């Protein structure tokens, strides 16, 4: 009886994990997620989000599914001294839990780029 219960629980765990989707993309300023896709979690794995910062300025994010070869390991303030970047990685295991913020509208990105170009030209004079 215990064996049957163990097999049933194992099956349910695998079945529930198979339905969990994670977002997978590189997220950069102004553009949002580049090459947005979904991946399905393998049993016992988690979705992960790694954010990279240069000082306090966010540079990019990497969203993906953890794998047996590269499982999610939460880490905060990991520093790459050569690049000067600091990384924070968070893990989660609910459907779409690493959902990135919505992509900025093209019009907003155009306004921001135009403003930055105007400011750059003004500073050069």
Automatic annotation (TrEMBL):
| Pfam short name (any one) | UPAR_LY6
Cleaved signal peptide residues: 1-18
Report the GO terms under cellular component: external side of plasma membrane; protein-containing complex
Q: Where is the UPAR/Ly6 domain?
A: 19-100
Which UniProt keyword terms apply here? Signal
PANTHER family registered for this protein in UniProt: LYMPHOCYTE ANTIGEN 6 COMPLEX LOCUS PROTEIN G6C
Name of the protein this chain belongs to:
Lymphocyte antigen 6 complex locus protein G6c isoform X2
